[in-house]
Amino acid sequence: MTTAWFHCFAGTAGDMTLGALIDAGADPVAVMEIVGRLGIDDYALTFEPVLRCGVAATHAIVVVNDHEHEHEHEHEHGHEHAPDHRPYRAIRDLVLAADLPTRVRDRVLATFDALAEVEGAMHRMPALDVEFHEVGSVDAIIDIVGACAALEVLGVDRIVCSPIALGRGSVHAAHGELPNPAPAVTALLARRNAPAFGIDTRKEIATPTGVALMTALADSFQPMPAMHLSAVGYGAGTADTPGRPNVVQVVIGNEAARTTTPGNGQPVRLLEVNLDDATGEVVAHTIAALLSAGAHDAWASPIVMKKGRPAHTVHALCDPAVSEAVAAVLIAESGSLGVRGTTLERWPQQRSESTVQIEDHVIRVKLSAGRVKVEHDDAAAAALALGWPLRAVLSAAEALGWALEAPAQ
User: Fold this and answer.
1) Is residue 253 very low, low, confident or very high in pLDDT (cuts 50, 70, 90)?
2) Global pTM value
3) Could you tell me if 272 and 238 lie in one domain?
4) How confident is the model at residue 84 (pLDDT cuts 50, 70, 90)?
5) Any domain includes 87
6) Which of 10, 199, 301, 361 is buried deepest, with most CB atoms within 10 A?
7) Which terms are listed as keywords in the entry (predicted)?
8) Are residues 279 and 249 in the same domain?
């Protein structure tokens, strides 16, 4: 199984992701042939060898012919905001009409679906009606489709990402001055419970395009998995920042087949508290809060404490990088005077996320060996809008999921 691990130690952007994959060996001619199927004219896609803090990297450049200069939509990474914009419905139609490889199409739509979902929530409108400004410009579309095409050219089956670096202060966008990281960035990270960390810079080092690619496509967020390395690449932003290479690193390699037998697993932290004075509603709220704080999983077990009192143990399983934040939520929500923890290992099985469509309603599905799992919230929203029974939507979405070409084959 071919895996791509993205190291976003200096942030991430769409053009940097594309540049990193080209630098790792994706044939630029093959990538541009796939991108060319979109039917978008008046642009040129080029790749330039550069140095960033002495690190050799590739800079992906989209030049739009009806403007006097290169679109520069992502600040530190070389893009100012382009004036053109498109509704997501139009972008989706554009992608569906193109003769893209199945896995490229699914990854592109998953990325734009994630962006439309968070933008729709922020602007209180349906996802398909969202108008993308910076992300709807030609160069951003080419960055996203190009990155997904490069993954296909390299034969990448599984995507893994490190925690993502973020800046501070504020950034200028189509809607005015916004906090840095931008609201879309934080919403995308929260949507996946993805790990991130701040560094001392006022530049926009993590852009919505780059973060959408990672949060929509990554199977997991973790240190580099055990694999036999075959290639490494660096994708550059425009700025050459002193003391910190302005690059995204991608490492390509082959992972051994995953099994449930003991070996080098993924480290996780199990945090627990015992509660004998909490109602069922409080326990349920605590579990929801733990998941929102970044826990891989959270649950409660019935127990009997001293003097025969019925009680619960609330458990949270999380990445060690977010264990402090998860423990703080566990204490605050449960009212416990302390928390205990154990370091464990886990062996998550290979899975991927794609989307199906029922009557214009986009529904996420998780695909794994011998199983299709429909995202309940998406199915419930579609059932409510269509007036269908929930079980009918779940059944239809599962059937469509089985018909998909699994991304990791």
Assistant:
1) very high
2) 0.63
3) no
4) low
5) yes
6) 10
7) Nickel
8) no
The span from the CA of 33 to the CA of 31, in Å, is 5
Query: What pLDDT was estimated at residue 135?
Result: 52
H or E element that contains 309: none
**Domains: count for the chain:** 3
58 part of a folded domain? yes
Q: 288 is in which domain, residue-wise?
A: 266-346
Q: What is the pLDDT of residues 22-32, one digit of tens each?
A: 999 999 999 99
3-state class (DSSP) for residue 316: strand
pLDDT tens per residue across span 23-65: 999 999 999 999 999 988 888 999 999 999 999 999 999 988 7
Beta-strand pair 86-87/247-254: unpaired
Place of tokens 């709220």: 285
- Within 302-388, residue ranges assigned H as helices are 323-334, 376-386
Backbone CA torsion sign across 102, 104, 108, 113: positive
Is the bond preceding residue 181 a cis peptide, omega within 30 degrees?
Answer: yes
Do 115 and 194 sit in the same domain of this protein? yes
Q: DSSP string covering 245-300, please?
A: --EEEEEEEEPPPP-SSSSS-EEEEEEEEEESS--HHHHHHHHHHHHHTT-SEEEE
SS3 343: strand
Per the listing, tokens 């609330």 go with 314
- 334 shares its domain with 359: no
Task: Give tens-digit pLDDT for 99-128.
Answer: 999 999 999 999 998 998 888 777 777 766
Task: Return the number of other C-beta atoms located less than 10 Å from residue 302's C-beta.
Answer: 8
pLDDT, position 409:
35
Which 8-state DSSP code applies to residue 12?
B
Q: Is the CB of residue 103 less than 8 Å from the CB of residue 120? A: no
Nearest to 315 by CA among 352, 335, 290: 290
Q: How far apart are CA 97 and CA 91, in angstroms?
A: 10
Residues 194 and 52 in one domain: yes
